[in-house]
User: Which sequence fits this backbone?
């Protein structure tokens, strides 16, 4: 078995014993938002103000991307931090023939598995609610996975360098939360003030939200989709490149 | 000499079992900086929600049936109640859990003249103080935004004390049942739906009758009813139900917490 798969399979082994708890946070949580905000608040929203869309159709694909970001954060920030600092799973793995790059790649493979399966579960429910409009909606699952990895890879690369757990919480609260609320998930960024809009275009989550939304509604064009995918893929690749260095430095102390 | 000592004992163990010592201790050692940075930290998230949902979605929503205020003004008291709930539960659940299992702080106190009742009352009082600071911070912001008039904000501030008391003591009672960190996931499983469905974002009339009844049983629903009535200046006799609900919840929580903590600490 290649080294990467050894690290991956150790995560899977763990996951087989702990998956029940993760359902709550990665599936139930976004689903409840979908029901409460999409269906409940949606009743107050006039479809005319969304160009004929129901609020659920508008909100659900955005939530799919946002949930992928949230799962990426849990897996790449909390879990990576505890693997190095508390549980020391990384250090144990490093004492075997595994190299830091195998540990990194194996763990990222597992993150992709988590983000992908959660996105799949969400997309199935979304379709069951009738919140999709186009057969292209099938592609929202890989799109959400890519969005998640665009966060997971850079986050993991950075988290291995972080000493204090509190730093992770601060970043979540002051960076990811604002991004979550203002990246077009809840309302289109066209309604943001002019000076704030360029900032939204830079935010990776907006690219993920827009990619998922246009696919789900069937309004995706090749050019905009290519830009979104390119941006997210670049972030993923950049994150992996940095992680190659930071994992080596912080695991081989 | 001995007599002197005996005379001093009553002043060492006051009627509340020394609850105020806990409050002073917590004020001194808490890690959140001064009370205002602490409040900043707790109100950041609700203010973001207010901007995104109240103002952002508010543009799509327009007027809410049966409510003659802007959507942001309707949502703000709901977020206030949630912010208070979250900050008191943070103290009496996660905070108390750490003190009990990791720091062994409560066990250490039992060696002092402070009694178990003192611990329970003190921790609830501390949580109420913490929730109140959060409430004042949030109310200041929404008063500046013009979402509430300042006399109404003052009445709402008084209401948050009751909300903090109800959730604080109930939280402290539930904490005795937490076995490990992973159990907090199940707490989230209760809190998140409550946050989403307890009329934070839309009036209860949106739901079918059956769901309405369930929602009306939730503690957060009553907290929001009370604070929304106060903040919008729409005080009506029906709010008595919410006040009584929260008072009973707080008192019951205190009694159960006292008994449960005795079970886990004294046996």
Assistant:
């Amino acid at each position: 078995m290649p080294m990467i798969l050894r690290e991956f399979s150790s995560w899977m082994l763990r996951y087989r014993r702990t998956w029940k708890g993760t359902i709550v946070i990665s599936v139930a949580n976004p689903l409840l938002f979908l029901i409460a905000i999409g269906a409940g608040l949606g009743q107050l929203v006039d479809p005319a103000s969304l160009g004929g869309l129901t609020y659920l159709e508008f909100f659900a694909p955005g939530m799919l991307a946002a949930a992928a970001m949230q799962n990426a954060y849990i897996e790449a920030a909390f879990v990576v931090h505890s693997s190095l600092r508390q549980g020391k799973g990384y250090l144990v793995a490093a004492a075997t023939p595994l190299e830091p790059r195998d540990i990194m790649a194996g763990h990222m493979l597992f993150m992709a598995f988590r983000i992908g399966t959660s996105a799949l579960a969400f997309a199935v429910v979304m379709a069951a609610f009738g919140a999709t409009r186009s057969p292209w909606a099938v592609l929202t699952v890989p799109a959400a996975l890519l969005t998640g990895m665009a966060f997971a890879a850079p986050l993991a690369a950075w988290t291995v360098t972080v000493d204090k757990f509190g730093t992770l919480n601060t970043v979540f609260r002051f960076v990811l939360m604002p991004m979550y609320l203002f990246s077009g998930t809840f309302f289109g960024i066209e309604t943001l003030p002019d000076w704030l809009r360029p900032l939204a275009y830079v935010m990776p989550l907006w690219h993920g939200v827009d990619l998922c939304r246009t696919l789900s509604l069937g309004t995706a064009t090749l050019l905009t989709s290519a830009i979104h995918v390119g941006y997210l893929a670049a972030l993923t690749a950049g994150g992996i490149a940095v992680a190659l260095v930071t994992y080596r430095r912080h695991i081989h102390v | 000499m001995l007599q002197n000592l005996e005379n001093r004992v009553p002043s060492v163990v006051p009627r509340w079992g020394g609850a105020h010592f806990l409050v002073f201790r917590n004020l001194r050692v808490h890690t959140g900086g001064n009370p205002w940075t602490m409040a900043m930290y707790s109100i950041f998230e609700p203010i973001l929600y207010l901007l995104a949902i109240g103002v952002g979605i508010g543009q799509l929503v327009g007027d809410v049936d049966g409510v003659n205020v802007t959507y942001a003004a309707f949502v703000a008291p709901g977020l206030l109640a949630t912010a208070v709930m979250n900050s008191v539960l943070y103290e009496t659940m996660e905070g108390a859990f750490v003190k009990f299992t990791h720091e062994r702080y409560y066990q250490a106190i039992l060696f002092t003249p402070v009694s178990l009742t003192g611990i329970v009352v003190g921790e609830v009082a501390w949580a109420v103080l913490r929730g109140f600071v959060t409430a004042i911070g949030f109310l200041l912001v929404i008063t500046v935004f013009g979402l509430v008039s300042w006399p109404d904000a003052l009445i709402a501030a008084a209401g948050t004390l009751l909300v903090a008391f109800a959730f604080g003591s109930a939280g402290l009672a539930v904490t005795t049942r937490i076995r490990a960190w992973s159990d907090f996931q199940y707490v989230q499983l209760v809190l998140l739906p409550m946050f989403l469905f307890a009329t934070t974002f839309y009036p209860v009339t949106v739901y079918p009758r059956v769901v309405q009844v369930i929602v009306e049983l939730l503690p957060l629903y009553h907290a929001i009813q009370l604070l929304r009535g106060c903040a919008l200046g729409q005080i009506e006799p029906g709010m008595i139900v919410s006040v009584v609900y929260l008072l009973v919840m707080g008192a019951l929580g205190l009694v159960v917490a006292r008994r449960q903590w005795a079970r886990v600490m004294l046996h």
Summary: Residues 5-10 of chain B have pLDDT under 50 and may be disordered. DSSP finds eleven helices and no strands in chain B. Chain B touches chain A at residues 41, 44-45, 48-49, 51-53, 56-57, 59-62, 64, 71, 182, 185-186, 188-189, 192-193, 196-197, 201-202, 206-207 (CB under 8 Å). The two ends of chain B are 36 Å apart (CA to CA).
